């Protein structure tokens, strides 16, 4: 049966709403701190569900951390009482198996037929899973990915999700296609493997299995690399993809928009000498982001 939630929906006069389930870092420009303004700029109401509260993200030498797991169900329960529904649901970093379970329950409770679910499976980078990610959590994340319409793993996470060995590259398009198809077989209709190193370029490999009959299911979009990797860019990317999907923007166009916007953010951050840990000063160019 065709997955109706995977189809692009035209805009309407009613303002769209997206729930974002992630941590809240007061300083450092990542997670909810960037998702809220970016999604709002794209004319979608952003409704955060915090998984943890941090004074600043964990790349700094020290930080305050308040795990919100035990309060998430009470928080979400109030939304159930209000009978809320969402046009989009997006997930960011999840710190435990229990949080992943809570998110799956959230999707089951709040999804309508046309709700678009984006899972950003933040599990690792540079060929390794994060220290917090156990094999049990990786298995649970695979179950969560099966609930999604759109998944945005980096190359490391795509390898974890498909039980493949990571290598330094270069990555052949055939390899990326095979991983994207495998992830799609788990349930998602759209897969974007992000941050693929291609010489002096960065690539994003797009797979839309709904377009296989048209012969347009695959696209590798490249953009010139600028500066170094910065915190929070993946959160900005996923936020643009989700808001655009809710607004009916085709995936390929959305990916190019997100990559171009992040490049502008990095350029501005270099110009302003912003430290890498402080993320990107997207505030300086947010007016250029169009719905």
Biggest sheet strand line-up = 3-2-1-4-5-8-9-10-11
Point out poorly predicted stretches: 1-12
What is the CATH top level name?
A: Alpha Beta
CATH architecture: 3-Layer(aba) Sandwich
The tally of structural domains comes to 1
Estimate the strand proportion.
15-25%
What does this 3D model show about the protein?
The chain has helices at 32-41, 69-82, 97-110, 135-145, 155-161, 173-185, 233-246, 251-271, and strands at residues 16-27, 44-56, 65-67, 88-91, 116-119, 124-125, 128-129, 150-151, 190-198, 201-208, 218-224. It is of the alpha/beta class. A nine-stranded mixed beta sheet has the order 3-2-1-4-5-8-9-10-11, with helices on both faces. Strands 6-7 form a two-stranded antiparallel sheet. It is globular. The protein has eight helices and eleven strands. Helices cover 36% and strands 23% of the residues. The protein has one domain: 3-Layer(aba) Sandwich (UDP-N-acetylmuramoyl-L-alanine:D-glutamate ligase). Helix 7 runs antiparallel to helix 8 (251-271). The two termini are 31 Å apart. The longest helix has 21 residues, at 251-271.
Compact description:
With 291 residues, the chain is α/β, with parallel strands linked by helices. Helices cover 36% and strands 23% of the residues.
Write the topology of this structure:
Blueprint: E1 16-27, H1 32-41, E2 44-56, E3 65-67, H2 69-82, E4 88-91, H3 97-110, E5 116-119, E6 124-125, E7 128-129, H4 135-145, E8 150-151, H5 155-161, H6 173-185, E9 190-198, E10 201-208, E11 218-224, H7 233-246, H8 251-271
Parallel strand pairs: 1-2, 1-4, 4-5, 5-8, 8-9
Antiparallel strand pairs: 2-3, 6-7, 9-10, 10-11
């Amino acid at each position: 049966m065709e997955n109706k939630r995977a189809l692009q929906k035209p805009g309407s006069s009613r303002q769209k709403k997206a729930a974002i389930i992630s941590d809240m870092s007061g300083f450092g420009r990542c997670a909810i701190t960037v998702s809220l303004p970016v999604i709002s700029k794209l004319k979608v109401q952003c409704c955060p569900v915090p998984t943890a509260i941090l004074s600043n993200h964990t790349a700094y030498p020290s930080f305050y951390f308040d795990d919100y797991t035990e309060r998430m169900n009470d928080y979400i329960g109030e939304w159930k009482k209000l009978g809320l529904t969402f046009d989009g649901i997006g997930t960011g970093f999840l710190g435990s198996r229990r949080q992943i379970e809570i998110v799956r329950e959230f999707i089951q409770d709040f999804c309508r037929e046309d709700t678009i679910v984006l899972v950003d499976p933040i599990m690792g980078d540079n060929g390794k899973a994060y220290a917090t990610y156990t094999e049990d959590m990786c298995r649970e994340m695979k179950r969560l990915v099966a609930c999604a319409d759109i998944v945005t793993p980096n190359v490391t996470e795509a390898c974890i999700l498909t039980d493949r060995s990571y290598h330094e590259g270069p990555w052949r398009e055939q390899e990326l296609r095979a991983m994207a198809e495998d992830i799609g077989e788990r349930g998602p209709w759209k897969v974007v493997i992000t941050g693929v190193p291609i010489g002096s370029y960065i690539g994003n490999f797009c797979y839309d299995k709904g377009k296989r009959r048209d012969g347009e299911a695959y696209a590798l979009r490249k953009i010139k690399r600028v500066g170094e990797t910065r915190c929070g860019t993946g959160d900005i990317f996923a936020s643009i993809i989700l808001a655009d999907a809710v607004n009916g923007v085709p995936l390929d166009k959305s990916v190019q928009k997100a990559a171009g916007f992040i490049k502008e953010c990095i350029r501005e951050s270099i110009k302003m000498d912003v430290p890498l840990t402080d993320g990107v000063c997207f505030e300086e160019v947010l007016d250029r982001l169009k719905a």
